[in-house]
Design goal:
alpha+beta, 4 helices, five-stranded antiparallel sheet
Length: 147
């Protein structure tokens, strides 16, 4: 699986609403849309909606995924940071284009969280979007931390 060929599922404008049942709703998070991929060789990559690597900036999420996801997987979700009881987009931005030591300090102060409800693909599953809420719950049931 080549990450550059993939893009997260994004909202698209439409002229009129589709027929009932032909669409889904998703909460709008104040974060960065992000694909999380664990390759079959164990390599973890976090990729923004524009294809930029977010792996270094959110190494706390990458480390949790490396530890908790034993097989190849692709998740479509959002990286968020909670601070003082709310989402804090500014703290997300402070992680970008920083040296590793600065990122580690930011992680200690404000760990990031990966929010997903769609399991976009995995070993043994056909490519494409899968109704994933139960699969993601099953996947994360054995995690050391909630990713």
């Amino acid at each position: 699986m080549v990450m550059s060929d993939l893009a997260p599922i994004l909202a698209e404008p439409v002229a009129e609403l589709p027929v009932a049942g032909a669409y889904a709703f998703e909460t709008k998070w104040d974060g960065f849309r992000c694909l999380l991929h664990r390759a079959d060789d164990g390599t973890i990559r976090l990729q923004s909606r524009r294809g930029t690597s977010l792996t270094t900036a959110f190494s706390d999420i990458a480390e949790a995924a490396e530890r908790d996801f034993p097989e190849e997987i692709l998740l479509d979700g959002e990286v968020v940071i909670w601070h003082d009881g709310r989402l804090d987009f500014g703290r997300l931005q402070r992680r970008l284009n920083r040296k590793a030591a600065t990122v580690r300090r930011e992680i200690a102060q404000s760990p990031a969280h990966y929010v997903t409800g769609v399991r976009a693909g995995s070993s043994g599953l056909s490519a494409g979007v899968i109704d994933g809420s139960q699969q993601v719950e099953d996947l994360c049931s054995g995690c050391h931390t909630v990713v």
